[in-house]
Give the backbone structure.
Amino acid sequence: MSQGSHFISKIPYFALVSLLAGYWSTITAAQHGTNISFAAVAILVYCLLFFLYTLFCLFVYPFVFSKFRGKYPLLFDDYSFLLGHVKMFLSGNCKDRYAEFIAKHPDAKAALFYGPLMTERLVVFDPLTLKELLVRYSYSFPKPSEVQETLNIGFGDGLFLSEGSYHQHLRKIMMPMFTLQHVRNIAPTFWENAKELVDLWDHKISIGADEKGILKYDTMDDFYNVAFDNICNAGLGVDLDALHDPGNETFNAYCQLFVPPRSWFDALTTFLTFFWSRFFYYSWKIPIHSRTQVSRSRAKIMKLIENIVNQRRIKLRLEEKDTNAQVDDKDLVSIILRTNRHSFTTDEMVNNLMSFLAAGHETISSSLLWTLYLLSRNPEVQASLRAAIYDKLPQLFIGSDAQPMSNEAMLEALENITELEQVMLEQMRVLPSVPQTLRIALKDHIFDSGIYVSKDTEIIVPLIGITTNPAIWGKDSYDFRPGRWTEQLIKGKNSTQTYMPFLAGPRMCIGKRFAETEYKITLATLIARFQFGPVNEYKLVYDARITSRPANGMPLLISAVENYSP
C-alpha cells in the first residue's frame, strides 16, 4: 500500500461509523416518536467524516504531525494543497528543479516532496543512503503499487516490475540472454541497422540539403524507429522495419502504449492512482475511446510476441528431432528457450519480452538523442571523437581503403576507443535516460546516515540530481565534459552510487551490456559519416516522466563527412 493509499484505507472506517450513526439515529428517533431516514444520516455522517479528514490531511497533518516537515527542506516552495509538488512531474521539468534545490541546499541529505493532497514523499540525495536503499536493502524498498499498475500497460508483468524472490528467480533465468558472447553474436544486427539509418540520412541530404550540403532535420523519430528495429531484430528475431515504414500497424500499436494522458479521464485516472493503485486497473474496464484504443494495441503486441514464442518452441522441437539441423538463431527468444525452456510458461515469456522491448527501446533511443544534442553543441568534442573512431575503425568512413574486419575484430576495436566510452558515460551522467525512480518502504527503517522512514513512506531517487551535483562532480557538473572520465573513473563506474544510469545492486539493468553495445555501434557509425551542428533557434523543452526526452523534437544540422582525414 502506498502512502497515498492511506487516504482510501480510511473509507471502510468512515463507512462503519456512518452505518452505526445511521442505526443509532433511527433507534433514538423511534424512541421519541419521530422518523429519521437511516440512509440520509449515514450519507451525511460519511460526507462529514470524509470532509473533516480531508481538511486534516491538507491543513493539520503536514504542519503539525509530520515527521519530515522542519527536518528536511521542501524540494521547492511552490506547491498546491490539491496537487502538492506533482506539477513537477506533470510538466516533466525535474532536471531544473533538482538543480535549483541543490544550489539552494548543497548539504541537504534529503528533501520533502508533497504528492496529491499533501501526501509526503522523501527525495534522497545522500549517496550512502542510496547505496543502502538500492544495494543493501533493495528488496525492502520495491516500486510502489501505483507505479507498478501504471507501468504494467507498456512493460508487462515481467522482470522490470517484479519484486523480491520472484525477481531473483527471473533474473537468474534471464542472465544467459545477456552474456558477452551472446551480445557479440547479435552485434551484426546493430551494424546493419546503423547502416540503414546512414543510408536514410544520406538520401535526406541528397534531396533536402541547402547549397552548402547542410540539412536541417528532426532526428527524434528516426532514433525511436531504429531503436525499435534493433530491439525487435535482436530480441524477437523479427524485422518490422519501423525505420522505413514508421506507419506500420505493429509499430503504431506499440507507440500507443507510451503516449501521455490525452483526455481529462486519463489525467484524472493518473491522479486517483496515487491514492488507490487498483483504480488504474479498473479504469481500463471503462469503454472510452482512449482506453479501448490502448487496450487493443497492447493485446496486438502481446499476441505478436506470443506467436513468436510459439514458433520458436516448434522450431526448437524440430531441431531436437533432426540432429543435422543448423542452429543459427541468435535472437534472445531463441537463446532463452534453449537455455531455460522449461522455466517459463508462454505467458511469462510474453510478459518478460514486453519488459525487454519497452525498457530497451525507450532508454537507448533517448540516450542517442541526447548524445547528438550534446555533441552538436560541443564541436571540439565531436571532432576529437571522430578522430578517435577513425584511428580504430577507419572502415566506417567513406573513401577509406582499410581492409574489412570481422565482427569480433570490429567489436574489439570499438571497446578500445576511450573517447567513445567517455562520451557515453558523460551523456548518461549529464542527461540520463531515466532521470528518477520511486521506491516505498515495506517497514520502518533507519539508514546509517540517520535518515528515518516509516512503513509506506515513498522515496524518490533523483538520479539526475545526483549525477549533476556540484558537490560530487565539481563546479562544472552541469557541463558536458567527457574528459572528466579518467581511466580510474571509468574502471570504478559501476561501484559508486553517484553514477547510476542503469541503477545499482540487485536491480541493476540486466541489459546493460546489450544497451552499451548498441549505443556505441550506432554512435560510431553516425559520427564517421555525418557532421552535426546545432539549430540556433531551437530551444530545448526537457520532458522527463518514465524516461527523458525532448518534448519538442530534436532538429539538427546534418552534413556528410567525405574523404575524412584527421
Q: What stands out?
A: The chain is about 55% helix and 10% strand.
